[in-house]
Amino acid sequence: MTKQQLPAVSLLTKDTLEEFKTTDKVVLVAYFASDDKASNQTYAALAENGRDEYIFGATNDAELAKAEGVTQPSLVLYKDFDEGKSTFSEKFTEEALRAFAKSASTPLIGEVGPETYQGYMAAGIPLAYIFSETPEERAELAKSLKSVAEKYKGKLNFATIDAKAFGAHAGNLNLPTDKWPAFAIQDTLTDEKFPFDGNKLTEKKVGAFVKEYVDGKLEPSVKSEPVPEKNDGPVTVIVATEFKKIVMDQVDKDVLVEYYAPWCGHCKALAPTYEKLGELYQGNDFANKVVIAKVDATTNDVPEKIQGFPTIKLYPANKKDSPVDYSGSRTLEDLANFIKDNGSYKIDGLAAQEDSNDDDTVMTDLPETMAKAAPAATESAGGAAQKIIDVAKDAADVVGTFVDDSEIPQDHHDEL
Question: Which overall architecture, per CATH, does domain 109-214 show?
């Protein structure tokens, strides 16, 4: 029976409670008085909004609450792991009850895998990974580190991970991918990584490491390519250690950033067009206002959660905290218009290029025009007008390869 087939809240008695506790790995039971309308309404709203995740029960039997060791109103989460149940006895608000359910339903030391990874990423608190190759060793490490997990429950989630199946993920946490066991903490909100140095995962050493992290005394590990010796091309190359300097600290510049992967075919197809885009803003007054940049997001830690390649974002001048995602076709015209429409300076790079090409055309034809008689002046003007039309047409024809989807290999760092 699915959760949606059950009532939002099942009314329980002393005869049905024990069986209800075993309905699922996790069930919630509220204990409140029959005349406590506020708690009743709050819990009913929680159940209605969360019935896809949990099974909800309730009782107003005061003797049953006493037998379960709780006072009214209370919420008990029964589970078939760890200590067996967790109790919430503070004021009932939907937000507080939801936070309690999420925290209490997460195992003290769980396991990271394809089915659980997204849940850990969405939990809103850091995740501590325990990498090991065998189930026996993972169980032993979970047992030895249990006291550390208990001490920091609610501040960090702890989970083991199969190093044989998902060892490549260690590289995404800036850990070696061939030395086990291993330990690292990931801030799931900022994606900052804190790898533990060494392979002896004792309670004392890991406990000290976690304490330093919680106390804010650890610096995040940053994976970065070397700073390029030359970086004066149409497209500025960003590495992790220079990201803040190029993107965020240039407060008075519109900065367009392409997050790419070297193996991505779509990124390769975009490259010539992106280079031409950079040329629109190079060597003119626009260079002080617009920067076209790119970063290899597979070899550099970046402060954005990148779900696919290429990902393109514009960081407008004086609005760096509000980047704009690009979702149009990957043509020169559309990319330039995106900068014009969303940048702080509204610069039309394509129009400026067309004006420049027009001037060059007229200057090239000037000696021949002056050598002709006055009656030919009208014809010359008509020829120049036609050249403007031709230049505009040529510019419109310069397009990049349009693609619908992003290529991501199965071991991409944003997934398991």
Answer: 3-Layer(aba) Sandwich (3.40)
